[in-house]
Write a structure and sequence with these properties.
Blueprint lengths: L1 E3 L6 E7 L23 E3 L6 E9 L9 E8 L7 E6 L2 E3 L3 E8 L3 E5 L7 E5 L4 E10 L4 E11 L21
Parallel strand pairs: 7-12
Antiparallel strand pairs: 1-3, 2-4, 4-5, 6-8, 8-10, 9-11, 11-12
């Protein structure tokens, strides 16, 4: 997440956590160098709800004492929905329906690769490689997705041979 303190003045900034420890803000997408707790803005990896305190202090000029403002910033880290299979067809015959039903650990909306927006799909399988992808989006807009593969068996082929026999004769069926 990007955090930023805005001001039209030349200020010095310090970022602290709720325990008063310095928080390092990172240069955008670079978590290894050019990092500082004295940045106006920067990137911070967030994995849980976090409270930060930013102190903006005007730079002292000759004969004047600088001013200071402290602001609390609360960041709520919303979870990605975890997708669980409720029921799924492991193997189906070609031309029959595969059924997959899912649920999530938090309230979510669904979107399947076939366009369905239910928590399940039932679709006729017409190819050997049948993969179905579902995306679950939480109320906060966090999205997870997963792909399911269904094994598809070819239908057996029956060779029909018309033959004639006499009454009470026998025929061997292979």
């Amino acid at each position: 997440i990007e955090v930023k303190a805005e001001s039209g003045q030349a200020l010095d900034y310090t970022w602290k956590d709720k325990d008063g420890k310095d928080v390092v803000l990172y240069a955008k997408d670079e978590f290894t160098h050019d990092n500082s707790s004295n940045r106006q803005s920067g990137w911070l990896p967030i994995t849980s709800d976090t409270t930060l305190y930013v102190t903006a202090k005007s730079r002292q000029q000759e004969g004047m004492k600088g001013c200071e403002e402290i602001e609390e910033i609360t960041i709520k880290a919303d979870a990605f929905p975890e997708i669980f299979v409720v029921k799924a067809s492991d193997t189906v015959c070609l031309g029959t329906s595969a059924y997959i039903q899912v649920r999530t650990d938090i309230t979510s909306s669904f979107s399947w690769s076939n366009g369905s927006d239910n928590n399940y799909i039932q679709e006729v399988v017409n190819k050997n490689d049948s993969r179905f992808t579902v995306s679950a989006t939480s109320e906060a807009g966090c999205t997870s997705d997963t792909t399911f593969s269904v094994n598809v068996w070819e239908l057996p082929t029956i060779q029909k041979i018309d033959t004639s026999i006499c009454y009470n004769d026998s025929v061997k069926l292979v």
